[in-house]
From TrEMBL:
Residues 7-21 have a biased composition (Basic residues). This is LCP family protein. The keyword Transmembrane helix applies. The keyword Transmembrane applies. Residues 420-431 have a biased composition (Polar residues). Residues 1-21, 359-431 are annotated as: Disordered.
Amino acid sequence: MNDTARRPRRHHATPVRHGRQRTPSAFGAILKTLAVVLAVALVSVGSVAAYAINNLAQQVSANAVDISGGEDAPPAPPLLGAFEGGFNLLVVGTDNDPNQGDSFGERDATLNDVNILLHVSADHKNAVVVSFPRDLVIAHPECTDPTTGEVFDAMSAQPLNEAFSRGGLACVNSTIENLTGLDINYAAATSFNGVIEMTNAIGGVPVCLVEPILDTDSGLDLPAGTSVIEGQMALAFLRNRHGVGDGSDLSRIASQQQYLSSMARTLKSANTLTDISKLYGLANAAAQNIQLSSSLASADSMVSLALTLKDVDLNNIVFVQYPSGDSVDYPNKVVPVTDLADALFAKVLADEPFTLGDDATGTGSTVVGTDPGATTEAPAETTAPEASVDPADPATDAPTTDVPPATTPEVIDGLKGQTAAEQTCANAFSD
């Protein structure tokens, strides 16, 4: 209350006339009632949304794990904006972790059976997704479990999927860094149940089979042609090995790349990106089923990741298998093909795009088409402007231009994989 309002009123001899109050109309009362109801509804919705977002953030933070190894944390992403520059993200699929349930059996230790590295270029125009075979025999660095402090000695030659048992997500991250020479600042791990819930939240992912596949080991039972899968059937498709290709883990990787390519197309479709219920369901499924590195465990980081990827052209998202081959020293395992791996990661480290050679499709997979919604961003051809030449002036006999010549990405022959724009079908197992 201001000073003016506190001053005593002056009394006048003239009688005060009281105005007649208007009788409120029924229509006006209804409008006021609706306004109150609307205000309460808006406040309630806002409160629920704020609670939901806060609840998700708490779940993510509570499960976060430090993968930095004592190094400085990466810069925080901008609020509701894309990452600045490029980044590397490791995604690990675990077997026998506490969240997978009893229906998948038990093992003596939790294994990192799926190991996928995502690299996004600094200009956000290209992305590379590298799948590492779980049975890849490589050197493992010394690891310290960030939750218990237990130290695990370095090993010279062991399968990649033993890394998680030696220190969780942080150790898998260090092992892939040691193999590739990359700095990986962001990582995430999910279980079987996580795959199921994430696929359900998206509304299913279309996959294609050349012939029907019935595999009792994984539970996969699908007809020839395209099927939209979710739940247990999506997990069965990703786990299936004996029913596809040559029955090897490399054939399974080709199926996983088909699935991930289709998921990328689904996530980039207008129906998915504009469906609030699907987006919230996806966030909720992620919070409950994915363990994130502390560098990624915030709403801002996850939003920035999505915003960075959403504009990458499908033709410029390349899925590749880490180059590997058989070895007499390690039966039923694979070892790195060093020259080809060096060529691949030289491009990734230099942040340079590349393309796959002919017949690059992975074992057990057949290309059937290209997504008509994808656009091919071929380098624009540049034409030098015509210069005015004076015949009398010898200096103008050879006109020059400062426009650089167009370049095309280098082809790396021998790599197996596909682009996100390519639609592939899985081949049934054959000897």
